[in-house]
Amino acid sequence: MARYKLTLAYDGTHFAGSQRQSGKRTVQGELEAGLRRLGWTGDSVLLAGRTDSGVHAWGQVAAFDWEWPHSLEALQKALNANLAPDMVVREVNVVAPEFHPRYDATARRYRYRIFLQPLRDPFRERYAWRVWPPFSGEVLPLLAQLWVGRHDFCAFGSPPRADGHTQRTVFSAGWEKQGDEWYFHIEADAFLYRMVRRLVYVQIAVARGRLPLEQVQQALEKGRTLPAGLAPAQGLMLMEVKYS
Q1: The pTM is what?
Q2: ω into residue 133 within 30 of 0, thus cis?
Q3: Residue 52 among the catalytic residues
Q4: Residues 234 and 126 in one domain
């Protein structure tokens, strides 16, 4: 029996999130169904973390135990032949039996994509948030640096468990502009539920002059509440889960 680690990519448009849910199409459910078509009899695969309905991934990580008698390349090909077109196994590795994709992770990296256009763009809106009127991006680098370090992000998300804490360490955060698109990159030890979408929404609200920067600083430093709102799910992508 070996433990296999998979690196997955998926288009989250038609998934009700990554975690298995009764009666709904999920990443975990589809992966387990594909494995069972190959003869796997395990109870559940392990995931590095949960992504919301509509959120995409380039570097989600899963793990499971199995006695696969062939090569890793053969396992990758067999799995991809049994998965839907909006999901793919990018890489397969054998890892230590005690490896856990969630608890052994040292960092997670996300990207959020925005584009500025007055009209709908059906070729981009599946993977990005269309914002109009346009905003000034001058304040965005300053905002991104607010998040770096160890902070209590209680005003920007909720813990996965009811008794969980809301402190997280952000290793890096920044904005990048390419043409009419903006990309927000952030890497942290872990994230609160919907934290990245909340951070993006707040930063764009400041850039559009709808929220004072000082109010955001107070929310981060003192936990004060901010107006409700989330950036849409389709602009978010889990890029990578890192391990030591």
Answers
A1: 0.95
A2: yes
A3: yes
A4: yes
